[in-house]
Structures are given as C-alpha cells and as structure tokens.
Amino acid sequence: MTPVLTPVAGVLETARREGVAAALSAAVLSGGRLVHASCHGELEPPDARPLRRDDLFDVASLTKVMATTTLAAQLADEGALRLDAPVAEALPGFEAAGKGAVTVRHLLAHASGLPEWRPYHERAARDPVAGRAFLTPGERPPPAALAEAARRGRAIVREAVLAEPLEAPPGARACYCDPGFIALGLVLEAIAGAPLSVLAERRVFGPLGLASTGFIDGAEPDHVRCRAEGRAFVPTGFSAPRRERLRGTVNDDNAWAMGGVGGHAGVFSTAAEVAALGQAWLEALSGGRGPVPPAAAEEFGRRDAATPGSARALGWDTPSGGAPSIGSRLGRGPRGAIGHLGYTGCSLWLDLDAGVVCALLTNHVHPSGKPDKPRIRQLRRSFHDAVAEALGIG
C-alpha cells in the first residue's frame, strides 16, 4: 500500500483545487524509506484520465542538479574535471569577451559574472536549418526529421555562449545563471567525450535505476521514439517561439533549440525518481558509496563562502531569505539543507540533519507558460511545512 502523509496530501489537493497547478506529484523519503507518495489532477485529452505516479514531468532546472551537477561531481572526484581550472581549458573559445578568468567552480556556484538568461533560441529560429524546429506545428517536420536542426541549434547556442560577455567580474556576485550551466554542460561533454544525454544515462540515471528519467534528445530520432513510446507526459504550457502548447517536449526554448538537451534544462522524470536522486546525494553526504562520490558531495554541498552574499553551494542552493521555499521547519539543523527549484513548478530539497528528501513536481506554468511566483512560492513553503508537521520535525 502506498504511504500517504495526510497533511501533505491535503496541501497538494488544495493547490489543485485552487488552480495553483493542474497536475501535482510528490514523493517524500525519511531515513531512506518512502513515507509519502501522491499525485493530484488529471491529464488532458486525448488521453484524459487521473494523473498517475509514472506520468512524466518536465523538471526544468532540476536538470542542473540531477544531471549536470552530479556528473560534475563524478568527474571532479575522478580528477578529470578541475574545479579551479579556467573553463577555456576544456572549452576553447570561452575566453572571448573577457571570460578567461572564469573557472568551473564559478559556473557551478552561479558566480561567473555571466547574465541570468539570454534568448539564444531566437538566433536558432532565424537560421534556415535550426529554424525548422521553430516552424508552426502544422509546418514543422516530424521529430525524426529534425535531427539536423537539433545539431545545428546546438552549434548556434554553443557559439552564442562562447561569445557572451560578462556583466560582472568572476566571483564578485552570485546571480542565477542559465548560460553558465549551458557552458558547464559543454565542458562535461568535452571532458567525457559523449553527449550530455548519454553521459547522464550511462553514469547517473542508469546506475541509480531511474528508468523513467532522462533527456529526450532530438539529435537522435531513435532515442526520441524510445523515450516517448508508451509514456504519458504532463503538459507545461504555451511557448510563444514555437506557437504551441507543450507536452512531451522541453519547456525551455533554449534547450529546445539545442534539441532538448542542455546543461540547464531538458530532463523529464517522476517524483519518485527525483527523490531517489536526492537520496543518493543525501547518502553520499553521510559518507555512503554510490554513483555520487562522498568527497565530492561534501565539497559540492558546502555554501560558496568566497562569493559575497552567496547562498549557493556548487550546483545546489541552500535556504536563504525570510521565507525560503523549504518552509519554516525543515533545514534548520546545524547541517542545514540543499535543494533546487525548477521553472515549471518543481523542487527538490534535502534536510541533511533529519535525513528527509522532498520531491515536488507540478506543471504550475500550464496553460499560460508563465509562473505566478507568489502562488508557487507559497505552495512550496506549505508543502514542506506539511512534511515537517507530519514527521514531527521542528
């Protein structure tokens, strides 16, 4: 029988009823044991039915920790990735526009000085080859015919990231940064000699048994068909550049331009498997062996003390501000908590003292494609406070 924490289920059902999200799924682990799993809402036509726990969500920026940060920790532990080396050593050309002093550590800590976001997809949409992926749905070729567009789009985004100038000196500020994680994904590919989608599957998702988790790589049509066949996807809202409501294709338009695979976005998963990834990090932070190396986990889980005012760790976030998304009761012990948010309305938080992992997946941005930040912040806080209440924490 599936365990349910009544206060948690109540918060999620209220959020569904009040329209915070049409679909919500959550998994909570305590001491490595599943103590809560529930899903709320319905899928839309043509396969309208109640949401199931195995339906796939676009987890958006949870990609940064589930794939990119975890791979970086592995490669750093192996000595293949040097955190304090200039990015340009692995990614020639990145030194352009004053970026020669930016290190891998800066990218992981969102301290590179690069901007928060840039619409690189607009360059891809103007290209005669990459632009095929941005034709209207009625004119766009089928996925099997878009592999060349995906490869060209990746090259365009790569060129744009290499040319991107800094807004601030490296290490002078912490500013959440998608271009930095796009660059980090390119670094990992260069060092490990394989596409990010392949690396994540081979080194992270496969070893952890996350059979439902992965990128949908448009550069590999057979892979797209294999990943999507027989699976149901939760819709994630309207994309103006693609002029369509999205379901089963990545919400992030820059990731779409790259064929669905970026260091910053592109992973699809379930609440149970997001929680399992979190548990692997929690165990590594307690010295356990597994796909996440303990020594690297310890370094990656520490707050970045070198950057003024930063609440970031390496790849991860930590609770900050007066009303953090982890709520008012979790993460208050001496070791604190690490976590991450996703634009689509997802989150993953690990309470390091209580040994609790909380995965919350929603499609909050559906159908508009835009978040209502106050409402999703309140849901996240209420969810985590309900977890703490049910488990007697705080």
Write the layout of secondary structure elements.
Layout: H1 6-17, E1 23-30, E2 33-43, E3 49-50, E4 57-58, H2 63-77, H3 87-90, H4 104-108, H5 121-126, H6 147-163, H7 178-192, H8 196-205, E5 214-215, H9 221-228, E6 237-239, E7 244-246, H10 253-257, E8 267-269, H11 271-285, H12 294-300, E9 337-342, E10 346-351, E11 356-362, H13 373-391
Helix pairs in contact: 1-13, 2-7, 2-8, 2-12, 11-12
Question: Could you describe the 3D structure shown?
Answer:
It is a single chain. This protein has 394 residues and is of the alpha+beta class. It has 13 helices and eleven strands. The protein has a six-stranded antiparallel sheet, sandwiched between helices. The protein has a three-stranded antiparallel sheet with strand order 4-8-5. Helix 2 crosses helix 7 and helix 2 crosses helix 8. The longest helix has 19 residues.
Question: What's the gist of this structure?
Answer:
The protein has 13 helices and eleven strands. The protein has helices at 6-17, 63-77, 87-90, 104-108, 121-126, 147-163, 178-192, 196-205, 221-228, 253-257, 271-285, 294-300, 373-391, and strands at residues 23-30, 33-43, 49-50, 57-58, 214-215, 237-239, 244-246, 267-269, 337-342, 346-351, 356-362. Helix 2 (63-77) crosses helix 7.
